[in-house]
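hiii, so i know i said id send this last week but things got crazy w the move. better late than never?? heres the sequnce for the chain we talked about at the cafe, plus the structure i predicted for it. fair warning i was half asleep when i ran it
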Amino acid sequence: MNSTNFRMPVRRLAAAATVTALATAPAVLGAGAAHATENPGRATASVLHTGLDVSLLDKSIDVPLVVSLNEVEAPRSADRTALSARLDGVAGGDPFTVLSADVAQSRATVTARRAEGSVRLVHAKLHVPGLPLLSLIEVDTVTAQATCEVGKMPSADAKILGTVTVLGRRITVTAGGPTEVKVPGVGEVRLDLAQHSTTSRTAAATALRLKVSVNPLKLNVADVEGTVTLAKATCESPMAPPAKPPTQRHDPGSGTTSDAAPVSDVKPQGGASDTHLAETGGNPATPYIAGGAVALLAAGGGAVLLARRRRS
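okay and structure toks below
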């Protein structure tokens, strides 16, 4: 084997070692960045959401009424107190009021350790197509709140305060199960009151959920069926960063080891370390680039040494 044939594998080995060392740095950094941004927490809040099908008298079709009021996701809030809608073939195409209230607030916030959604609705009236003068439901005050905090069990709470009137009839609010209201010639409404649920990281609260089936036979409307949700809040807690295991440090004088954080982990407060990186032109990839350079020097030096021995 001549010297030329010997040098080629050595050079290829050196190049491969360098490429491997440099390629590893972005992969490690990418994994760190993904871990830092995953599961930041989530919160939502909604004053009203409808999913209704409206059947028209003079047409064999259903017109969907899917509208929302103050439906937000963190970090947002909303305070709009009225919602109007238009449906082709209903009320001559003019807008009609779906919901009006004195107060209709929704809030959704997320921090590094806490996510929370909340809703408050005061003196609200809900209407459906075909019943312009009769409210589907009227409520004094309803609230919903869901809170998810790192290290604590999530909580959810929904309250209905004051009176509740359905299709013109005042009802007694109970949390023991659904309440059904039937009005001859108008329709029926089933109410699920103050529902809430929690898991180890999530929570959800709904003040009122209505299953609606009415047949007003007015304003070209034959039937209205579907669901309506009043005051709903949800949350998902942020994920706490994993704790670093303690470092074993040996004390020569005592012959024992102790758990202690390495000196390199102790950083000044206020982000000074990031500032130094900016001033010197450094970045988190610097250790990996330096490692690649060392691998390149080591591989190149080995190739030269072997080549000299071969020639001698």
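btw The first strand starts at residue 42 and ends at 56. thought thatd interest u
miss u guys!!
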